[in-house]
Design goal:
By secondary structure, the protein is α/β, with parallel strands linked by helices. It has a domain of about 80 residues. It contains 16 helices and twelve strands. It has a seven-stranded parallel sheet, sandwiched between helices. α1 packs across α16, α9 packs parallel to α11 and α15 packs antiparallel against α16. The longest helix is centred in the C-terminal third of the chain and has 21 residues. It is globular, with a radius of gyration of 20 Å. It starts with a helix and ends with a helix. The model has no long low-confidence stretch (mean pLDDT about 95).
């Protein structure tokens, strides 16, 4: 087969199949950052997003309108959107004065659609259509859930936004988090997509308030456990004030396992890139530091560590380099899934070509 014809076949196959099936679970800034990198490789992306947020503009809308919090959903939609720059600015715009001060236009847009459509999940689907989203963004549940935390001293705090505050006041480790109602159900579509995934990614993001809350829903854990997808945990670069100060990487994994014992994590992606000194000093003011990769303890869990330079700095804040992160995830998918399935060799070669191109671009950036 001629080279040009083979490339044409790859392109046609890619359009037909959409690429490997990825399900990313989490919330907050971390999940939306990851999604920006994933969409360069596949259109089969599903973001399953926590809905326990009760702070900021989302919390106000949740209380005033009796709807699920839209903030994390909005961020994920915009990460996967294919729209004009002015629309992206509009969706992230926050009012600077008046009764709407601090509120996001995007949150209000979702709130209006929630009222028009009569349900939160339908509102999310409609805004995804309007913004030409690659893949799907789904709330993990439609139940009005509240997140609680129990600390080592036995005290319990109610509300996602209050947990980090209380942790700092008590200076106690979080023993566990839990949802009320405890019997809430996941969206059926989310469960189907988890079962059909090639890779399931947990994180990056706040361990106790973005990642683990999704794993408090029993049928989500059951679907992850039954799925033959590759299970990957994307570690944060730094420990987090109010949640994981002093935690090593194995302690992050331990917390996930304690809340969802059935889940077996195949790989954990950890950063070994250098964090700029100015940011090290900045995070020291919050007692935060780079997460220690303690191999001896991690090896006991059966999880394999993949290290790389995932450091990126945006507007003075430390973030993951989403291109490098996506490259790592799809490298694992290619070798562990696609290369072993003769029926998916077209996908394998397509992703392989994308990975080579991405590696060159990342090297240029650095």
């Amino acid at each position: 087969m001629k080279k040009k014809a083979f490339k044409s076949l790859l392109k046609e196959s890619r359009i037909f199949s959409g690429g490997p099936k990825v399900v990313a679970i989490g919330g907050g800034t971390g999940l939306s950052t990851l999604l920006r990198g994933l969409k360069r490789y596949t259109s089969n992306i599903t973001a399953i997003v926590t809905v326990s947020d009760d702070g900021g503009g989302s919390g106000i809308l949740r209380e005033d309108m009796g709807m699920l919090p839209p903030g994390d959903i909005r961020n994920c939609i915009m990460a996967l959107a294919n729209t004009e720059p002015i629309m992206e600015k509009l969706m992230h715009y926050r009012f600077k004065e008046g009764a709407l001060r601090g509120q996001s236009f995007g949150n209000l847009f979702i709130a209006a659609l929630n009222d028009i459509c009569g349900s939160f999940d339908q509102a999310v689907k409609e805004i995804s259509n309007v913004l030409a989203v690659t893949g799907k963004v789904l709330p993990v549940t439609l139940s009005d859930v509240v997140l609680y935390a129990e600390f080592d001293d036995g005290s319990i705090t109610k509300g996602e936004s209050q947990i980090p505050i209380k942790q700092q006041q008590l200076n106690q480790k979080i023993n566990r988090v839990f949802l009320r109602p405890s019997n809430c159900k996941a969206i059926p579509e989310a469960l189907e997509l988890l079962m059909d995934a090639d890779v399931i990614a947990l994180g990056p993001g706040s361990l106790y308030t973005s990642i683990i809350p999704n794993l408090m829903i029993k049928d989500v854990v059951k679907a992850i456990n039954k799925s033959d997808a590759l299970k990957v945990y994307v570690s944060n670069i730094m420990t987090q004030k109010g949640e994981t100060i002093g935690y090593s990487l194995s302690e992050h994994i331990k917390a996930i396992k304690e809340h969802a014992p059935a889940i077996e994590i195949d790989y954990v992606i950890a950063n070994n890139g250098r964090v700029p000194d100015v940011l090290i000093e900045k995070y020291k003011t919050e007692n935060a530091s780079p997460i220690e990769v303690d191999y001896d303890n991690i090896n006991k869990t059966g999880t394999r560590v993949v290290e790389g330079d995932y450091v990126s700095v945006e507007n003075g804040y430390l973030r993951h380099n989403y291109n490098a992160l996506a490259e790592c995830i799809f490298g694992l998918v290619n070798e562990e899934r696609l290369a072993k399935d003769k029926k998916r060799l077209i996908d394998y070669y397509y992703i392989n070509g994308k990975l080579k191109k991405s590696k060159k671009n990342i090297e240029k950036e650095r």
